[in-house]
């Protein structure tokens, strides 16, 4: 099958006549579209996607993008048919479609990520394009049913209704000539609330929608990327269990689930002890000893290779490594299955109609002692036994099984502790006394995994320098290294990583203030919205705590102080306490929800502002001044309450 050809438009396409010379345009935007026409013909043989765009180029900055049309073709049954490419210049139509302006190349754009896909790129270019020109382009992309498990067999198209330029007419037309019904979801944002309209398109039926005068959407008006806004999505109507069952049966038919040899022996892996420890040993072997390398071409875009092939090559992508992990676990009698997830969608996938095209990653489900665990075979340097391995924050997943499975929410507790930071100050009060600072960091779960990989991937000297610079920036004083960044403990079973660094504080005798200022940056985990009305995603991924211990030569005299903020989305607590000759300032935050609905953003941001105002810790380096230091914080909070009361009254 030719990668491209030039021919007339098929009869199923409804062509539209436009007065292109006198089309309304807005030259205040670098470009605009008089027409965006989507028409798609869905059949059991394949899918035919017609596109026509009529674009006005109003600024030189747009010429490069408007003069190039790219199609990425994945296999032999994938083709593009060019119908026309005209420039309307000063009321004159110029045909610029020719074989001379078409090139076919194979671009491997992901080789740096160790992924090859053998994708063929067909490009059509315009040599002479000028400001003021109107570009009228028409083409049909053909994807026929072939050996691939999805392409040509399942259908999905997403049509966005938000544009970064004015669009005067947008048309969506779907003709269902297949034997299966199609499912349509239209999503729009109304006052920050996502509203979903759903309908079914039966065989032999047609769906048509037209939209007029779509205005340019500016960045500050757009919904966040994780929250899909205005779009129409159309896909083959299926259920999650039938999709789960279909892919499992397909893999069985392809023989990719078979392991003809003893995988454990091929891996040269020595097992022993209890089953739980053997599970972890196998998981870590696949994660760390099988190199990530993707060969995503043909059926392998969605089909894993056989386990013994992956173990012999000692490399594979997420599908290959997951399939190998399943095979190895099955060899020791442990139930395991492959699971499809999307690394970027999170919970968003639950609101979409079932489709195999929602997924971009594969992980593994392990069932042991009537409890399920999920592992990502592509993560390196991970630690923890079965109970302390970091859970995966991928939202939902589809387990592939012989009986079929529903979409499942992956177990992930966002309230678990992930980070504990402690600053310990020792102020030598006297001429010969030395002031010292010790910083301890404790990482848990996925943060321990991330830092462990970070530590082992970089030179410790460079990391120690980075941590030293950050420590100086935090307290804005000169620090001389007494003990560089050191890993105190790496608990492989509990998945806990502890570090320590020690410094001598210099220049306090020249320090003009009698207080040290140290920021608690917890509030940075709670972003503020650019514009209220849209939902907001909270970045905090677990409980974090910052404690400051200040040791003096005499006992400071002051009553303890404590503040708690409890909201629907997070809880926060800070306190001031004393024990013997030591002052303790402590703050912690725990997320309750990952998202704030648009209607609640204003209230949420008031709480974050309150948290931010409590983020500065001021404490003296002389015990006699501690009383005034603490009261400065209390006074600042009282002033905040007065201001907020006045503002909201």
Structure in words:
The N and C termini lie far apart (about 70 Å). α4 (about 275-290) runs antiparallel to α6 (about 320-330) and α5 crosses α6. The strands form 9 sheets. Strands 1, 2, 3, 5, 6, 10, 12 and 15 form an 8-stranded mixed β-sheet that branches. The chain has an 8-stranded mixed β-sheet with strand order 27-28-26-25-31-34-33-32. Strands 22-21-20-23-24 form a 5-stranded antiparallel β-sheet. With about 650 residues, the chain is an alpha+beta fold. It contains 10 helices and 36 strands. About 20% of the residues lie in helices and about 40% in strands.
**Tally of individual domains:** 3
The third-level CATH topology of the largest domain is: Immunoglobulin-like
CATH architecture of the largest domain: Sandwich
Summed over residues and divided by their number, the pLDDT gives a mean of 87
Tally of separate helices? 10
The major beta sheet can be summarized as:
8 strands, mixed
Which structural class is indicated by helix and strand composition?
alpha+beta
Beta fraction: 35-45%
Compute the gyration radius: what is it? Answer: 30 Å
- N-to-C span: 72 Å
Query: What portion of residues is helical?
Result: 10-25%
Shape: globular
Number of strands: 36
Name of the CATH first level of the largest domain: Mainly Beta
Quaternary status of these chains? Answer: single chain
Layout: helices, strands, pairs:
Layout: E1 4-6, E2 31-43, E3 46-57, H1 63-66, E4 68-73, E5 78-89, E6 92-95, E7 102-106, E8 115-116, E9 120-125, E10 134-144, E11 156-160, E12 167-177, E13 182-190, E14 193-201, E15 206-214, E16 231-236, H2 240-254, H3 263-266, H4 275-289, E17 291-292, E18 294-295, H5 307-313, E19 315-316, H6 318-331, E20 335-341, E21 361-368, E22 371-375, E23 396-399, E24 407-409, E25 417-426, E26 435-444, H7 445-457, H8 460-475, E27 478-491, E28 496-506, E29 515-519, E30 536-537, E31 543-551, E32 561-566, E33 570-579, E34 582-591, E35 595-596, H9 601-613, E36 616-620, H10 626-648
Parallel strand pairs: 1-5, 2-12, 8-18, 17-19, 25-31
Antiparallel strand pairs: 2-3, 3-10, 4-9, 5-6, 5-10, 7-9, 11-16, 12-15, 13-14, 13-16, 20-21, 20-23, 21-22, 23-24, 25-26, 26-28, 27-28, 29-36, 30-35, 31-34, 32-33, 33-34
Helix pairs in contact: 4-6, 5-6
């Amino acid at each position: 099958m030719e990668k491209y050809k030039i021919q007339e438009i098929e009869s199923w396409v409804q062509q539209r006549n436009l007065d292109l010379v006198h089309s309304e345009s807005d030259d205040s935007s670098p470009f605009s579209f008089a027409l965006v026409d989507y028409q798609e013909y869905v059949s059991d043989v394949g899918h035919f996607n017609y596109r026509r765009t009529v674009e006005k180029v109003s600024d030189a900055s747009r010429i490069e993008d408007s003069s190039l049309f790219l199609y990425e073709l994945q296999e032999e049954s994938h083709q593009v048919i060019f119908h026309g490419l005209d420039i309307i210049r000063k009321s004159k139509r110029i045909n610029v479609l020719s074989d001379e302006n078409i090139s076919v190349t194979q671009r491997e754009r992901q080789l740096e990520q160790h992924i090859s896909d053998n994708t063929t790129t067909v490009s059509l270019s315009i040599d002479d394009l000028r400001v003021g020109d109107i570009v009228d382009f028409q083409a049909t992309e053909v994807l026929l049913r072939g050996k691939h498990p999805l392409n040509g067999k399942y259908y999905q198209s997403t049509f966005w209704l938000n544009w970064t330029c004015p669009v005067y007419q947008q048309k969506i037309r779907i003709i269902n000539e297949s034997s299966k019904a199609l499912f349509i979801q239209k999503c729009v944002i109304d006052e920050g609330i996502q509203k979903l309209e759903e309908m079914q398109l039966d065989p032999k039926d047609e769906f048509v929608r037209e939209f007029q005068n779509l205005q340019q959407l500016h960045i500050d008006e757009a919904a966040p990327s994780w929250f899909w806004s205005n779009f129409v999505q159309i896909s083959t109507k299926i259920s999650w269990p039938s999709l789960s069952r279909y892919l499992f049966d397909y893999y069985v038919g392809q023989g990719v689930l078979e392991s003809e040899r003893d995988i454990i022996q091929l891996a040269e892996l020595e097992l022993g002890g209890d089953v739980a420890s053997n599970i972890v040993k196998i998981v870590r072997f696949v994660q760390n000893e099988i190199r990530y390398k993707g060969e995503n071409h043909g059926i392998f875009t969605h089909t894993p290779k056989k386990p013994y092939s992956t173990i012999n090559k000692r490399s594979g992508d997420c599908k290959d490594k997951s399939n190998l992990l399943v095979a190895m676990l099955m060899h020791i009698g442990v139930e395991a299955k492959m699971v499809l997830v999307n690394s970027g969608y999170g919970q968003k996938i639950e609101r979409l109609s079932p489709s195999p095209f929602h997924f971009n990653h594969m992980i593994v489900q392990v069932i042991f002692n009537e409890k399920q665990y999920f592992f990502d075979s592509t993560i390196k340097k991970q630690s923890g036994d079965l109970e302390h391995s970091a859970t995966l924050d991928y939202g939902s997943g589809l387990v592939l099984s012989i009986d079929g499975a529903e979409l499942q929410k992956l177990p992930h507790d966002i309230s678990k502790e992930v980070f504990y930071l402690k600053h310990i100050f020792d102020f030598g009060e006297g001429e010969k006394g030395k002031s010292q600072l010790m910083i301890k960091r404790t990482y848990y779960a996925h943060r321990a995994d991330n830092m462990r990989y970070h530590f082992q991937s970089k030179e410790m000297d460079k990391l120690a320098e980075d941590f030293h610079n950050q420590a100086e920036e935090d307290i804005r004083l000169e620090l001389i290294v007494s003990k560089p960044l050191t890993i105190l403990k790496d608990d492989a079973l509990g998945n806990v990583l502890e570090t320590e660094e020690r410094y001598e504080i210099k220049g306090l005798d020249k320090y003009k203030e009698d207080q040290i200022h140290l920021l608690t940056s917890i509030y940075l985990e709670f972003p503020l919205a650019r514009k209220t009305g849209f939902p907001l995603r909270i970045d905090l991924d677990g409980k974090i705590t910052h404690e400051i211990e200040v040791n003096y030569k005499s006992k400071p005299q002051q009553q303890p102080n404590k503040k708690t903020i409890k909201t629907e989305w997070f809880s926060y607590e800070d306190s001031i306490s004393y024990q013997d000759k030591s002052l303790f300032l402590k703050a912690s935050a725990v997320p309750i929800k990952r998202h704030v609905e648009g209607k609640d953003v204003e209230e949420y941001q008031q709480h974050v502002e309150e948290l931010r105002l409590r983020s500065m810790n001021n404490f003296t380096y002389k015990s006699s001044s501690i009383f005034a230091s603490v009261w400065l914080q209390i006074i600042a909070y009282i002033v905040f309450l007065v201001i907020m009361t006045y503002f909201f009254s």
